[in-house]
Amino acid sequence: MTGQPAGEIRIRDLLAVDTLVPREVRGGLAGEVAPENAVAIAAMVRTDRSRMQVVADRVAAALGCTVAIGGVEGEMAVRGALTTPGVGVPVAVLDLGGGSTDAALLGPDGRSAAVHVAGAGELVTKLIDAELALEDRELAEIVKRHPLAKVESFFRLRHEDGTVQFVTEPLPPHVYARVVAMTPDGPVPVPTRRSLDQVRRVRRAAKRRVFTVNALRALRRVAPGGSLRLLDFVVLLGGSALDFEIPDLLAEALAPHGVVCGVGNVHGTEGPRNAVASGLVAAFAEEA
Amino acid sequence: MSTERPVAPAVVVRYAGGHSEVLRQVCAGLEEEGVPARVEQVTGDQGCVALAYAAAGASPLETGIGIDATGAVAVHHAALPRTAPVRTVRADAGSAEHRLAGGTAARVVTIQPLR
Asked: What are phi and psi for residue A140, nearest 5 degrees?
C-alpha cells in the first residue's frame, strides 16, 4: 500500500482475536452454512521517517505551506488531554482510534511514556461484519455505532434496554418485525435471523475483545512497574471514545484495578477528538 | 349488533371477481404461513387499496387483502393510513408475486419480517 517492498515491513505489535465465521458446508445442496472458528488479526507495522516525509511533502504541495514533522503522538495526546477541565498531572490517556489503541502516561516528574498497540475500531467493525455474516462494512459500522431495537408493530419498537417506544408515523414495511439499528436518520434493518439479544451480544463481545483487552495491555506497559493500581485515572480520547458503550465497557474493566476513567473534553469544547492535533499546536506555539 | 359467537380470527380477502387464479395464489400464500383467511366477494369498481383497507377494518386480525376487478392486489393493516398499504402487487406481476402478497399479509399477522 505504501509502495514499500514486503521484506522491509516490520511488524511491531499483533492482536489476535478468536471469532466465528459462517462457512458454506462443502457438499451441501441447499447452501447450508455452519459457524467455524477463525482468528482475526490486527498488526501494527513500523513506519520510517522517509514515509512520513512523503506524506508531509504531499500535504505541503496540496496546501502550499511548509510542513514539519514533529512530536510523539502519545506525548501530544497527553498535552491535548490536559486541556480537559479538571485534569492534572499525573495523567494516563487512552487514545481509542480506528486502527490502533494508544496509551500514554505523564508522570509528576514530567517524564512521559507512550505505547501503541494494534487493533481498534476497524477491527471491531470487521468482527461484527464477520460474525453476523453481513458482508457489508457500512452496515457493520452502523451496527457498531448505534443501539439496536426490534420493530414489534407498525407503530411500536422495543429498544435493546427493554423500553418500548411508540411512534406517530407508521414504520416502513421493510423494517417490520426486524432487528434495526437506531441511527439518527431512522431505523436501519439488520438482515439477520438472529434475535436482538444475539446481535447485541456479538456487538458487545467484539468491543470487549478488542478495546478492553487492548486498554489493559497498553496501560500495563506504560504504568509504573507495570501495575495498573498505580494509575489514578485515565482520560479516554479518540473517535471510539464517543461510542455509546465503549467508555462504559472500559470503566467496568478498569474498576477492579481501582482506576477511574472518563471521556476527555479537549479545551472543554472539542470532546475526545482532536487531542493530538491540539497537543501539536500547543507544542508548536510554545517553541515559537 | 352483538353476535352470539365470537368471529373466528382470519385475514379478510375482499375479491371483486374475475381473477380466480390471483385469488387462488393469494390464499395459497396465506395457507403457506398457516394463517386462516376469509374470502368475501364484493361488487363495485373500488381500487385494490380501498378494498384492502375496508377488509382490514372488517378483519379480527386487522389485516386485509383487496383484489380489484383488474386483478391488482393490495395488503393493508387497519392501523396504517388509508392510502399507505403494506404492499401492492400489479395484476400482471405473475403468480409468485401474488402468492407473496398472501404471505406478506400472513407475516404482518404473525409479526415476522416481510419478504
From this structure: -60, -40
